[in-house]
Amino acid sequence: MLEMFSYPFIIRALVVGTLVSLCSALLGVNLVLKRYSMIGDGLSHVAFSAMAVATVMNWAPLTVAIPVVIAASYILLRFSSTGRLSGDSAIALLSTGALAIGIFIISMRSGINTDINNYMFGSVLAISKSDVTLSVVLSLAVLALYVVFYNKIFAVTFDEPFARATGIRVDFYNMLIAVLTAVTIVLGMRMIGALLISSLIIFPAMSSMRVFKCFRNVVICSAVISVACFLTGLTVSYEYSAPTGASVVIINMAVFAAFCAADYIRGRLIIHQDHSR
Amino acid sequence: MKNTLISCGDITLGYENMTVLRHVSFELNEGDYLCVVGENGAGKSTLIKCLAGLKKPMEGEIRFSDKITRRDIGYLPQQTAIQRDFPASVREVVTSGCLNNSRLLPFYTRADKERAAKHMAELGITELAEKSYRELSGGQQQRVLLARALCASNKMLILDEPVTGLDPIVTGEIYSIIKEINKKYGMTIIMVSHDVGNAVKNANKILHIKHTVQFFGSTDEYVGSKIGREFIGG
Description:
Largest interface: A-B, 30 and 38 residues
Shape of chain B: globular
Number of strands of chain B: 9
Helix content of chain B: 25-40%
Order of helices and strands of chain B: EEEHEEHHHHEHEHEEHH
CATH class of the domain at 2-194 in chain A: Mainly Alpha
Radius of gyration of chain B: 18 Å
Structural class of chain A: mainly alpha
Number of helices of chain B: 9
Oligomer: heterodimer
Structural class of chain B: alpha/beta
Largest sheet of chain A: none
CATH topology of the largest domain in chain B: Rossmann fold
CATH topology of the domain at 2-194 in chain A: ABC transporter involved in vitamin B12 uptake, BtuC
CATH architecture of the largest domain in chain B: 3-Layer(aba) Sandwich
Order of helices and strands of chain A: HHHHHHHHHHHH
CATH superfamily of the largest domain in chain B: P-loop containing nucleotide triphosphate hydrolases
């Protein structure tokens, strides 16, 4: 099994995947709690569309997609905070609209079905050397910003009106979360796939919330789960020659099921103790 | 001696093209305890949001004396749906009230932590510090949010219906805590309440609104007035 590390593309996937899993797990806790679980899905469809355009025009996919997706996340947040569109329908409009445009553009040129397949379901082979450098720099930036603003991000997520009344720049921090999410989504979607990337945001957060009750522990646990699931998923995909994205998501599902069971058993034990008193 | 802390000059409030409240003027002094009363939809919460700085008045302005700025206001908003299943320990929630004091620092200072511990002790929630906020009773949750508001300010508290959904005993406890904060620290209190009985028992000033000011003055005057007798009686 260790021979898998002799392939440079596996090493690249390992580095980028670990960092992206870490970022998505941290941001995921805030997005799930803010009822923005599906934002990742919407943004990844926009990223798909941007990459489709980049492929057709022969531009570098990541450098096109990142600014486009950041703009999309800004628009999403604007619309839902002014109350003109509710969050979930705004995301649905954006994601289906972007997908349609992406498919339309890509179909203008024949013979690039592999690209569609790779973007939709992800591929470890898609990561080039220059992608690795960009991914490492950006994901370290995401992690650093998250750590520096951790307390304020907590305050804004827990209680926006209170944070606003005490003078925290709520709009700035919401925007920061959206930008960090956009960057993470674009970095992760080539390996995990546009259709699957949002699970990286949702599953680790949901799993750790089953078991932990304080915010800091939820964040730490979610980061550990996410990285562990990625590493396991990557190994499984190598062993069975299965797509990496799907393998990682399946491992995440298994962990979620295990955490649900643990929570249920603990609940039963507490009831049992109460009865026997 | 008059010591005006905050004054509302003829403010009009509303949403987009609908006016909710018109021509509201009042003044509060240091140490006042004001209850805002009125029927549902009278514009109480809108007024409170405006005082807390979450909303701008359409006309008129709110002036603060030089002793107080927006950052000196502790705010206790109505609970949101997000908070009900939010995984956060009591300590984390209370300490987050200190953030306005350390705006440039990324982490909490020792002074912040001590401040949080002090206010938790005052409100009798020290034993709950490591418990999860979502597992507390309604009364305990309000104590946590009060401790957080105290971390944010020692001059003025704005409370938006702090006793909604609590049973009468817990409601009484919350009222006596607020009264004590008002007496002990001389903090100015502005509170919206449905419960006019407790309002007149505790506050020294009453603002009764229904799309505009129906009454503003001392509690004694309010109890003696026609509108006051009708509202308390009915």
